[in-house]
């Protein structure tokens, strides 16, 4: 694929791959059948990010709130996350899974990745949010800080559940919804936010290129 050139590339991009269920329904399929169709676009997007030299990417797998859905849907998106990590394990990535692994709904196959794992050359940092909950994320800091004894006291942001994830420059969401859905509230505090109306399984590289062209024109001041 011939990639366009950009004057400015975000260092860290977060992706919200929404619309899998709507995509399935539009094709007369069961809602849960849409999740597996989101895997191939994810790997295509990974290849593009790596080729463009993006340093870090975060992908929203599923939230703890998503687990309130019917069990057949919950099983399907949990399996899609396991399959995504299995695919990434064969590629070049520094992979970290972030989420509440104390819950029985956290896929046990992904527990080894709760500590960042270098895969292949490990050049691209990938954060995968699985059974993620912003309340869990922030409450981890309260737990760790209250339990700390002696030594140098860490700050609140150094103790959150997602402390290893850096500040996000750009959030790209498929599916047309205008909301963050609890995505990493600390890291997304100054992120630019780009919406794509097409559903995630209908991903096209031009979706992301359009987001990057838009980002080039944004005045990134971080409040300064």
Q: How are the strands ordered across the major sheet?
A: 4-3-5-2-1-6-7
Spans where pLDDT lies below 50 across 5 or more residues = none
- The sequence of SSEs as H and E is EHHEHEEEHHEEH
Number of DSSP strands?
7
Mean pLDDT: 95
What kind of sheet is the major sheet? 7 strands, mixed
Structural class: alpha/beta
Q: How many H/I helices? A: 6
The rounded Rg comes to 17 Å
Q: Residue share in helices?
A: 25-40%
- Share in β-strands: 15-25%
Which term fits the overall shape? globular
Give the termini distance in whole angstroms. Answer: 38 Å
Produce a short descriptive summary.
This protein is an alpha/beta fold and 224 residues long.
Task: Provide keyphrases for this structure.
224 residues; alpha/beta; seven-stranded mixed β-sheet; 7 strands; 18% strand; globular
Your description of this structure?
- There is one protein chain.
- This protein is α/β, with parallel strands linked by helices.
- The chain is 31% helix and 18% strand.
- It has helices spanning 20-26, 39-52, 71-88, 134-147, 156-159, 205-216; strands at 12-16, 56-63, 93-98, 117-119, 125-132, 170-174, 192-196.
- Strands 4-3-5-2-1-6-7 form a 7-stranded mixed sheet, sandwiched between helices.
- The longest helix has 18 residues, at 71-88.
Ordered list of secondary-structure elements with their pairings:
Layout: E1 12-16, H1 20-26, H2 39-52, E2 56-63, H3 71-88, E3 93-98, E4 117-119, E5 125-132, H4 134-147, H5 156-159, E6 170-174, E7 192-196, H6 205-216
Parallel strand pairs: 1-2, 1-6, 2-5, 3-5, 6-7
Antiparallel strand pairs: 3-4
